[in-house]
């Protein structure tokens, strides 16, 4: 039995929080940890000026369409000494594309932001001066304070320029107005993406755009996982990639997602962004695939962890269950569209075989298979605990609410180890797994490592263990990634037979299925299953 220890107390708390709510009953398209991909946020060439203006004109009530006579100042540059500079009045499409090109950001993201914040694209909430003035919500703190400004060029309708506003949320005259809002939103979204990924030197310096003051600025938003600095001259610090949103921990799978949460630190706003973007332009994912991950893969969907099993998603009920099956948090992959489309399977709610645990005021239990083949908790006697070679650091402490209800009919004594235990016998180099009254030979180091076993978890076999009949060989875990002879394989099963399936090409492995070199085990080809299955590709 192996008790997995996560990387630090903070990680344990966060993973525990991931499992505190029940999964959504139907497949959800919104993944809080992956609102948008970097490759989508960064694509500044998705729409031309003409295409943006035509898109706006497709909405009969759009506040920003040329059909509505809308124009505003053209953003033409920036310098540290004078700030933003503007040209004459131009169409909304011109402003949006020029802002997108200035900061290498997708104009579709800017259109979606305008709709999310003030519904200006569709015009569904009306076209008031307040909406134009705070078009992207930039400089609008949650305090609810309002401001009055005059003598500004906020926007123009049919040649008439609106110059004053009363009761706006925008906290500075420099930020008030359609173009003033949009160009700052474009900068903020890009700055947040770059800084959340540790790029302290990012700055746009070309033509009339000189953001050379950006590398001097510190950042205070969500961070992606890694060792980063938040200030250019600051010390690098390890970040686990989590940010608390509306009281729940959310993993920032990329800089673009972190930037959106910096911009709007709430689920509702980011789900609105996702839904709007998807309905207009398709899923905001780059390098996505309609192929699901292989069986045996852990995925993160809607802040819940699932195991892909038999082409379905089995929900892992809590962190203790997750740990009891020897999983690592680093094994959890970002979902693909193919994963989203899978149906839901049964909930994995029982600790894995061989798991030792206790709860306040309760004895020590071990999970074991009863004669009917079901996993139940079995009371382990004090003498058996010592005689079978267990230690107190092998025992998980769990909340009473997480103690399985089903109880073994007998107490575990010291003659035979329970299922899920690795054992070794004197003068025998082999390692065995005890499973439902049999001894399964662990075929090699690859199989051993695929389950993240460790040598200190192996117990000395008893005479009762030695008397058990031989079972089927214990092979590598399904879903394990291996590299051998320069090729990448994923371990799968055809019935009870393990097979190695070539996985590729690299674009599928790294970009679409979100694996990395850290996910594979490097072994000689002879250590892998001898049977080769069909290629697993996207």
Helix content: 10-25%
Number of helices: 15
Largest β sheet strand count, sense and barrel closure: 5 strands, mixed
**Rg calc:** 29 Å
**Topology, number of strands:** 29
Structural class by secondary-structure content: alpha+beta
| Molecular shape | elongated
Strand order of the largest sheet: 16-13-14-15-17
N-to-C span = 35 Å
Approximately what portion of the residues adopt beta-strand conformation? 15-25%
Low-confidence stretches: 1-15, 24-28
- Average of the residue pLDDT scores: 92
Description of the structure:
This protein has 538 residues and is α+β, with helices and mostly antiparallel strands. It contains 15 helices and 29 strands. It has a five-stranded mixed β-sheet with strand order 16-13-14-15-17, with no helix packed on it. It has a four-stranded antiparallel β-sheet with strand order 2-1-4-5. A four-stranded mixed β-sheet has the order 20-19-18-21, with no helix packed on it. α4 (92-102) packs parallel to α7. The longest helix is centred in the middle third of the chain and has 19 residues, at 178-196. The radius of gyration is 29 Å and the shape is elongated. It starts with 7 loop residues before the first helix and ends in a 16-residue tail after the last strand. Mean pLDDT is 92; it is low at 1-15 and 24-28.
């Amino acid at each position: 039995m192996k008790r997995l220890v996560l990387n630090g107390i903070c990680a344990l708390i966060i993973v525990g929080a991931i499992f505190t709510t029940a999964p959504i009953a139907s497949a959800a398209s919104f993944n809080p940890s992956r609102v948008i991909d970097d490759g989508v946020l960064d694509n500044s060439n998705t729409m031309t000026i003409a295409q943006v203006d035509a898109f706006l004109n497709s909405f009969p009530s759009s506040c920003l369409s040329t059909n509505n006579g809308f124009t505003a100042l053209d953003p033409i540059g920036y310098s540290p000494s004078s700030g933003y500079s503007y040209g004459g009045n131009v169409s909304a499409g011109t402003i949006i594309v020029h802002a997108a090109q200035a900061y290498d950001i997708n104009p579709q993201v800017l259109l979606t932001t305008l709709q999310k914040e003030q519904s200006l694209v569709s015009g569904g909430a009306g076209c008031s001066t307040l909406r134009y003035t705070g078009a992207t919500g930039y400089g609008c703190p949650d305090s609810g304070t309002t401001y009055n400004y005059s003598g500004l060029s906020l926007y123009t309708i049919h040649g008439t320029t609106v110059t004053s506003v009363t009761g706006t949320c925008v906290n500075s005259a420099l930020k008030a107005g359609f173009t003033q809002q949009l160009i700052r939103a474009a900068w903020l979204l890009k700055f947040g993406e770059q800084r959340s990924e540790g790029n302290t030197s990012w700055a746009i310096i070309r033509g009339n755009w000189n953001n050379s003051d950006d590398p001097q600025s510190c950042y205070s938003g969500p961070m992606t996982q890694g060792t980063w600095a938040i200030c250019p001259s600051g010390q690098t610090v390890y970040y686990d990639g989590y940010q608390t949103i509306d009281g729940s921990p959310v993993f920032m799978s990329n800089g673009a997602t972190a930037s959106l949460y910096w911009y709007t630190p709430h689920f509702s706003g980011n789900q609105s962004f996702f839904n709007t973007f998807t309905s207009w332009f398709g899923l905001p994912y780059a390098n996505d695939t309609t192929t699901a991950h292989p069986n045996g893969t852990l995925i993160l969907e809607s802040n819940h962890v699932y195991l892909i099993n038999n082409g379905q998603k089995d929900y892992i009920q809590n962190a203790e269950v997750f740990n009891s099956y020897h999983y690592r948090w680093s094994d959890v992959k970002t979902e693909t569209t193919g994963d989203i489309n899978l149906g839901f399977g049964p909930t994995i709610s029982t600790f894995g075989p061989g798991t030792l645990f206790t709860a306040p005021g309760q004895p020590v239990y071990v999970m074991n298979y009863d004669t009917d083949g079901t996993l139940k908790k079995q009371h382990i006697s004090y003498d058996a605990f010592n005689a079978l070679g267990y230690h107190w650091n092998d025992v998980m402490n769990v909340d009473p609410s997480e103690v399985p209800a089903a109880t073994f009919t007998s107490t575990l004594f010291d003659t035979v180890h329970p299922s899920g235990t690795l054992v070794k016998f004197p003068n025998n180099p082999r390692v065995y797994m005890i499973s439902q009254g049999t001894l399964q030979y662990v075929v090699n180091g690859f199989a051993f490592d695929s389950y993240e076993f460790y040598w200190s978890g192996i117990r000395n076999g008893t005479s009762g263990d030695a008397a058990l009949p031989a079972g089927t060989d214990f092979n590598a875990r399904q879903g394990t990634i291996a590299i051998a002879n320069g090729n990448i394989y994923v371990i799968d099963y055809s019935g009870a037979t393990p097979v190695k399936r070539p996985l590729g090409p690299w674009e599928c492995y790294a970009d679409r299925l979100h694996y990395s070199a850290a996910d594979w085990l490097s072994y000689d080809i002879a250590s892998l299953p001898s049977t080769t299955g069909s290629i697993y590709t996207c």
